[in-house]
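Moderator note: this is an archived Q&A kept for reference. The question asked for a predicted structure of one protein chain; the sequence and the answer are reproduced below.
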Amino acid sequence: MSRQVFLYDPPDRFIAGTVGLPGRRTFFLQATAGTRTTSVALEKTQVAALAERMEELLDEVVRRTGGNAAVPAVAPNEITDTAPLETPIEEEFRVGTMALAWDGEEERMIVEAQALVELDAESEEDLAEAEERLLQDEENGPPMLRVRLSGAQARAFAKRALDVVNAGRPPCPLCSLPLDPEGHVCPRQNGYRRGA
């Protein structure tokens, strides 16, 4: 079966969002262009890593071009998106691998999110070889979301993504583990329940 690529070049909207209550949230990347919407599920840590790496890549582009690239230093207020995810949310796939690149000619950030794939391998060497084949297979690889963003769109995405990640449960002031609404068993309190 040939690879399905969900291409948005450029998207009308590209955001990270969640469904559910803090502590039980499901994270999504969602790209929209016209009436077409693609939603892919991923882990909270993947959203945080993506946003942080996007910021780092944009900062590096600004540094290397001496500030001549069309990349704002911070996310522009006029394109800030605080609206919820488009519904209904239909998960196309769960993200396994992500990649970022900067297209210097077009001055666009390229974000790729590839579906999670389970590989069978008998050794670490076989696993590495199978992963490499999978990444190189443009025709028959797993489904992929590919989004091309301007510098401003990438800054706005990264800001919102970090805000979404940080909107979860507050950390315990003693142990830094997340506090549930009913409290948690704090290791620093020798197992006594601590309220929120």
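Archived answer notes: The beta strands are 5-8, 13-19, 26-33, 36-42, 91-103, 108-115, 144-149, 184-185, 193-194.
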